[in-house]
Amino acid sequence: MMKAAPWPVMLAMLASLALNLWLAGAPGWAWFPAAIAGWYLADFASGVIHMVMDYKVCTPGVGLDQLYFYEGSRESPDYLALRDQVWTRVGPFEKLVYDFKNHHPRPDALGRRPMLVQIGSTILFATLPASLLLNLAALALPLPGWMIAGLVVFIIGATFAQYFHGTLHKDDNPPLVIWMRRLGLLMTPNAHAIHHATLDRDFATNTGWSNPLVNRLFNLAIDRRWLKPEGLEPN
Ligand SMILES: [Zn+2]
Ligand SMILES: [Zn+2]
Fold this sequence. Notes:
mainly alpha
């Protein structure tokens, strides 16, 4: 379904982040609040994107509903043939939208994917372009070092958002993840379970710090019909 980003893309990502940190110069005290703000922003981005993808209406009539509501085995030749057929009719973005919706009835599949697959689309579509833009901005403008550092933290947090989401759906996680949960720098599976029980709140999946704000945005978006409840499942 989703693929890992090719290795030149991964290398470009690492090189671009390293260049940003180098351009940020020597660390100062202001890096600390900037890093916390960057970590908050990454959580907010995870929430807003998750919210929009959950409720964005899929293109009707291309068979995404048949895949979503398929009743037999998902390893059967019949299902796999259907899936290949549907995938020829939808672009990469629509696949991503489908993937978010498909996460609700089948949440554990996300945790089973390798990390590079989980973060591949995010790097390709969002955080590599963002990091390259920051390279250009930091080269062309006199940006303060703390601002570049905070944005680097934001880009890293956003890059790993789907990986962090995946760790909420599996039991065996690296010690770093457990340790960050204890410090409150990542959210807990119990806190994320509220999203799966309701599907209309707590969309942020990194720390959950921004959920009070994202929940307000969601209620506003539903009231104004910017997002439509019927978008939650393909039709
Ligand atoms: Zn969701
Ligand atoms: Zn989930």
